[in-house]
C-alpha cells in the first residue's frame, strides 16, 4: 500500500514535469517550422496538455483496466471545469473575448451529449471507439483550419505570447520533445500500477480512482497553465486550454482506450459521471457566454459554484464507489 502511494506521488510528479517539457518542446519545434501561433496553440499544445490523459488511459486499457481509462477521461473533464476553472475564477475573474472559443463551446456541448451514445448499452465497443476517433479527426481538421485562418483572434495573441516565452533552439526543442514523451510513458506506467494497487487495497473500483486521484493528477498541467494565463491577462488562453482538453479527452482519450479494448461500464457512469460532466459543460457555456453580458466573464461567484460542485461530486463518487 505504501509503495503504491509512493508510486502515485512519484508518477504524478514525473507525469506533470514530463508533460510540461513535452509541450514546450513540441511548441518550440512547431514554431521553428513556421506554424501560426493559433495553430500551434489549438493543435500542438492541445495534444500536449492532453498527453497525460492519453498515455495513462492507453496504458490502463492495455493492462486490462479500462475503467481507469474512462474514469481518467471523464474525471479530467469534470476536474477541468469544476476545479481548475473554479479555482482560477476565484483567484481572478476570467474574461472571454475570443470568437474561436465562442464557436468551440457549442461544439463541446454537442460532443459531450454525443458521448452518451456509446454509454447507453453499458459497453464502449471497438466500433464505437473508432467512431469517436473519426469525429476527433474531423474536429482536428477544423482546428487546423481555424489555426490557419484565425490569426486576428484574441486567442492567437495569447498563444503568440506564450510561444515567445518558450522560445529555444531547435536542437533543445527536439530533445525536450523526445525526453518528455519517453518520461510520459514511464511515469504513466508507474501511475497506473499505483492507482490499480490502491483501488484493490481500498476495495474501490479503478473507475473511482480514475475519476478522482488520477484525473486530478493528469489535470495539474491545465491548472498551472490556467492560473499563469490569468495572471498574465491571457484569459482566453485559460478557457481555451480547458475547452480543448475536454474535446480531446471525450473523443481521443476515450476513443484510444476503447479501440485498444472494449470498455465495460459500471451502471453509474451514465447517470453519475456523464451527467455531471454534461451539467458542468452547460454551466460553463451559460456562465462564459451569456448573450446579454458584456464583457463575457466567469466571475468569482461562478468559480465558487464550480468548486462546490466538484466537492459535492467527489464526495458522492467516494460514497458510491466501493465494490460490494
Automatic annotation (TrEMBL):
Residues of the signal peptide: none
Membrane spanning stretches: 35-60, 81-101, 107-140, 173-196, 208-230, 242-265, 271-289, 301-323
Compartments (UniProt record): Membrane
Organism the protein comes from: Pseudidiomarina maritima
Highest taxon listed in the record's lineage: Bacteria
Primary location: membrane
Keywords of this entry: Membrane, Transmembrane, Transmembrane helix
A GO molecular-function descriptor: calcium, potassium:sodium antiporter activity
Family annotation (Pfam families): Na_Ca_ex
Protein name, UniProt field: Cation:H+ antiporter
Every Sodium/calcium exchanger membrane region domain range: 4-144, 174-318
GO cellular component terms given for this protein: plasma membrane
Amino acid at each position: 500500500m505504501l509503495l503504491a502511494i509512493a508510486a502515485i506521488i512519484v508518477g504524478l510528479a514525473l507525469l506533470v514535469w514530463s508533460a510540461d517539457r513535452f509541450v514546450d518542446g513540441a511548441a518550440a519545434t512547431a514554431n521553428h517550422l513556421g506554424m501560426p501561433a493559433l495553430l500551434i496553440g489549438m493543435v500542438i499544445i492541445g495534444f500536449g496538455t492532453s498527453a497525460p490523459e492519453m498515455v495513462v488511459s492507453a496504458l490502463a486499457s492495455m493492462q486490462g483496466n479500462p475503467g481507469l481509462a474512462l474514469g481518467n477521461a471523464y474525471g479530467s473533464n469534470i476536474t477541468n471545469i469544476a476545479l481548475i476553472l473554479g479555482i482560477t475564477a476565484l483567484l481572478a475573474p476570467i474574461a472571454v473575448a475570443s470568437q474561436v472559443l465562442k464557436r468551440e463551446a457549442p461544439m463541446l456541448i454537442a460532443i459531450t451529449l454525443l458521448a452518451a451514445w456509446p454509454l447507453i448499452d453499458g459497453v464502449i465497443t471497438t466500433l464505437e471507439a473508432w467512431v469517436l476517433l473519426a469525429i476527433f479527426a474531423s474536429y482536428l481538421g477544423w482546428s487546423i483550419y481555424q489555426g490557419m485562418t484565425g490569426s486576428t483572434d484574441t486567442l492567437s495573441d495569447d498563444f503568440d505570447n506564450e510561444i515567445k516565452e518558450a522560445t529555444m533552439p531547435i536542437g533543445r526543442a527536439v530533445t525536450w520533445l523526445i525526453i518528455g514523451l519517453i518520461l510520459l510513458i514511464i511515469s504513466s506506467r508507474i501511475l497506473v500500477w499505483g492507482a490499480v494497487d490502491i483501488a484493490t487495497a481500498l476495495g474501490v473500483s479503478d473507475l473511482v480512482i480514475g475519476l478522482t486521484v488520477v484525473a486530478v493528477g493528469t489535470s495539474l498541467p491545465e491548472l498551472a497553465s490556467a492560473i499563469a494565463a490569468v495572471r498574465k491577462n491571457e484569459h482566453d488562453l485559460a478557457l481555451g486550454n480547458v475547452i480543448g482538453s475536454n474535446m480531446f479527452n471525450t473523443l481521443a482519450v476515450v476513443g484510444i482506450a476503447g479501440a485498444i479494448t472494449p470498455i465495460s461500464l459500471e451502471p453509474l457512469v451514465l447517470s453519475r459521471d456523464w451527467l455531471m460532466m454534461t451539467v458542468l459543460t452547460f454551466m460553463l457555456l451559460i456562465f462564459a457566454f451569456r448573450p446579454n453580458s458584456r464583457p463575457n466573464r466567469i466571475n468569482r461567484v461562478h468559480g465558487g459554484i464550480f468548486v462546490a460542485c466538484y466537492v459535492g461530486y467527489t464526495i458522492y463518487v467516494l460514497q458510491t464507489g466501493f465494490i460490494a
